[in-house]
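Researcher: Structure for this, please.
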Amino acid sequence: MSLDGRIAGPGDDLSFLETVAGDGEDRDFDDFIAGIDALVVGSGTLRWLHGQGHDLPHRGLPIWLVSHDEALAARAAAADPDGTPVTRVEGELAEILDGIAAAGHARAWIGGGGDIAGQALAADRVDEVILTIAPTVLGAGPAVFDHPALEPRRFALAECREYGKGSVRLRWMRDRAQQATSFGR
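Model: Predicted structure, token format:
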């Protein structure tokens, strides 16, 4: 994300990501992927990926596409029909996440846009946040958690380190005990 909390600039411009010069980026991502067992993505993110020449956000992990667009889901499913199951879902994200858990998945990556991440946070279903902060201010664009009615959520810092040249990698874990005392719940 940018210094001002944006995951894209106006018009979904992601050129600011070029300012993130990461050493060891491939190993970090491989370690991250090894720890998850499902992916949730929104239609806007998948359309953006398609526009950049990528057919799927990640191969081999079951993908839940939150979308009304059946053609988009069919295109994604056809990209790797034998190795990457794609399930199109609609409705409340909390119910979708319940369905993913019922399918036996314990750790889902919310990889699909600020709206999807905001819905997950609003439903109190985010336990960990990992962000790389780029040394750039965008001024406008979608936020990391882009939801109109988020209640305060408390997280505890678990990791803070320099990432490449000028960027920072942060990892927070949900602090439910502190939440109850610091926000009067």
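Researcher: Any notable elements?
Model: The longest strand covers residues 155-163. The chain has one domain: 10-182.
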